[in-house]
Design brief:
It contains 4 helices and 30 strands. By secondary structure, the chain is mainly beta. Among the domains are: 67 residues, no CATH class; 74 residues, no CATH class. Strand 24 and strand 25 form a beta hairpin. The protein is elongated and about 75 Å long.
Amino acid sequence: MKRNLIYFTLLLLPIFSIAQQQFYPFNYNDKSGLSDEKGNEILAPIYNYWRESEDKKLLIFRPDFNSKENTLCFDVASKQGKKYKTFYEDEVTVQKIQHHFVEELTGKKYLLNSKTGEMIRFKDDVYTLNDLNDHYIIAKYYSREIITPKVSLEKEPYKKVKGKIPPPPPPKKSPDVEAMESADYYIIYSSTNDLKPVLQTKAKQYFLLNKEIPNHRKDENGNVVVQIIERNLNDFDFILFENNGAYQLYDKNFKLIKKFTSKPSPEYAVNEEALKKCETFSGSKIENERGAYPSIGMASEDKREEPKFEIQRENDTYFLISKNNGKSKKILSSPHKLEYTIEGKLWIQNEKADKTTSFKFDENTFQLYIPQKYLGNLGVKIL
């Protein structure tokens, strides 16, 4: 019995050790890779940048836009990576659960539940989407509609050039067709597992509008009556679509209020004329701008903790210096400029090549979370 218990314990040890394995993204010469807690290379630095999912379960490495490399999603728990055509972490919320927007190498697109791994398939060819609020998602999609451009020939008098008649001028597209081709196809879904479509339209841009909060009024005695109104900054009262001066105004339930024309609006702002028409048709005063976010407040005047490390320069060499327990100790040297930031992150700036290398390290053991070969390439020495 005792022998069996010992054997069982020995079996558990390597499993426990593996479970403790951690992973650390690093940058080498402006490219992102991945190492483990011992500095062993897991992913070579060939990616443009990396992101981490909110639940810290996934590390997503994305290549350059023109690269032939695919996006790689690394699952920290399973220690496995999978390649995708696109992978946008925590893109939307469905029933209060974060979902990733995924396109596999085969072209299959879906939402991936961050908790259960369940997939929600699209009926439309969606290429970008985001939350409108807690209840709806807005997306852009590729339409199956085939647009046949209408062209009109401009008649111009033929001009003789050295006795020759030049060819007729090329056909020009009508303004309506040009506006149609520059517009995007929008679809709004309910934030449910069936992704029920509630509105489809075509526009260049859209704006979320809110009713104006009334000013404090005075009572019959002249006292100011304070109104406390709770507002979710991610919510809205109206949504306005615009396409080269053609507007569609809907209420928050996506019921059409009015279609009208006005001057085209600049990006991120409704022009004043169109805004006044929205107020007329909706019967509500509308805010020109969203409310400001609350102030963070003043910084604390408490004594700041002394940094555990500092950078020193001697001639043309930079040193990372540990200051633990009041004693100075050189950890590494570099011919390139060093910069230390809190939480054990070190930056190496190769100014001649205009390239940056950065990685984290353990502030107690001085373990560097980057493969040694890349530090050797930069002339960095561990002391």
